[in-house]
Amino acid sequence: MLHEPQEYKPIISAEAPEELKEKIGKLGVIETSVHTPPYTMHKFWARRPWRVFRELITRFTKPGDIILDPFAGGGVTLVEGLIARRRVIAVDLNPLAVKIMKHEVKPLNMGLYKGALKRLAEVIEPVASEIYAVRCPHCGGKAMAIWTEYDSTSNKPIRIYYECPICGSKGIKKPEPGDLPEPQSMPQFRRVQIPIGDKTSDLLKRGIRFFDQLYTKRNLYMVLRLKEEIERLGDPFDEDVKSFLLFTLSSTLKWASKMSHLRGSIIEGWAIHAYWIYPKYLEINVWKQFLNRAEAVLKGKSYTNRYIGYYAKEARDFSDLLTEATYMVIQADARKLPLPSESVDAVITDPPYGDNVNYAELSDYFLWLFGESAPKNEEIVINRTRGFSIHHYQQGLEEVFRECYRVLKPGGALISTFNSKDASVVGAFVYSVRKAGFKFAGVSPQPYLRAYETTFHAMQVDSMPLITYSSSTRVRDTVIVQGVLLLS
Ligand SMILES: C[S@@+](CC[C@H](N)C(=O)[O-])C[C@H]1O[C@@H](n2cnc3c(N)ncnc32)[C@H](O)[C@@H]1O
Ligand SMILES: [Zn+2]
Prior knowledge:
Largest sheet: 8 strands, mixed
Strand content: 15-25%
Shape: globular
CATH superfamily of the largest domain: Vaccinia Virus protein VP39
Structural class: alpha+beta
Bound molecules: S-adenosylmethionine, zinc ion
Number of domains: 2
Radius of gyration: 24 Å
Helix content: 25-40%
CATH class of the largest domain: Alpha Beta
Number of strands: 17
Distance between the termini: 36 Å
Strand order of the largest sheet: 1-14-17-13-12-2-3-11
Order of helices and strands: EHHEHEHHEEEEHHHEEEHHEEHHEHEEEE
């Protein structure tokens, strides 16, 4: 049962300072809306609604203030903070989060990026039309597979969605001999093992031990060729543009493996918080999807170029932030913040929620191709395989909040969203902030966001969550707190 709107009244501590009481009282129910384009450039798990963060930032800080987010994840505090002309320090342990955040705020030369796409197309387009070639059932000419559905037991194709550039027909066809020729060679690459974990056990049981085994031979070939060709680009394409193209390729991976499937007529890339291959999986056309993702990157960057632009100046160290620079993205364990004491005006954050998302295990899916992997031992989550209990989780949060306490200016507030139906996880969170020295100021409960429960992205359209889906198996009206406010 969902609560009535009047039930979302704040609970405010009588001992909180007057100014803070007033601000908490005014928060009310924060309206949410779909992700803006910067957040649809690349998947990250559990991105919080931007409106909630924008509201917290504008209400609890003023322009020029330094905001710290020690669990910065998909970058909502960073992006919204810079749009609101604050200075932001975004910390995350996970290199994928760091990569995403850097690309979210770094300005992009759109003309150069488009030029590089054209150059890539000259090489890759002919490769794609060979490797995804199928016979057009209408004119008999060479058509292109947009996706192919496979049976996961036999690994045989069942049906193909094709488009024919000769006669213009498109539709579903049955596979026939000569369709989808196998690549004859494979670019060199380093195999990377899938980590043993809570979320990888299904694959490991099936004998899938390396990330490359998650791909059909054809799609692995395409992904590796694209990477090679991007890295090979020379003048006038600089390192920044190449980095944005590799970021686009990373974003494409969500759809490129056998973890994609059809839900009705929607092509769904990897959308669940565990590794899983459906009984009927899809082999999408990697090149087509890369172009779709490039569109999403262009939209995301035109948004941030417009609303942040050259206000985004990355600091090399904290002292830079006190002069010219406006943000820092730091890959670190937030238990040890490389920041001076009493240096930030506010902490605005969204911590991990127990075992809700095992970020490090899941991120390796995107990182392996670039020779990276996420640190696992320092991650603050509950993970049975790694022996991380609720105590590990609580202890970790406490240490991070202690650091927050140390770096906050006296009187500065820590503002955190939190969302869990597991009472022990909520308890661990509340206990940690208290033990770290913070005093309770208030809670502003927010209704659960249906739209964010599961979002499915349509390949043909773009990555905006056009279709949102509420799973009946996960009842979330037991949300206890969202928007806990505490102060030093
Ligand atoms: C709930 S997510 C943050 C999501 C973010 N608010 C957003 O909207 O995208 C929590 C983040 O905490 C990070 N994390 C976990 N352990 C950490 C640690 N010891 N130090 C820093 N970050 C950590 C995870 O990598 C993850 O990105
Ligand atoms: Zn045709």
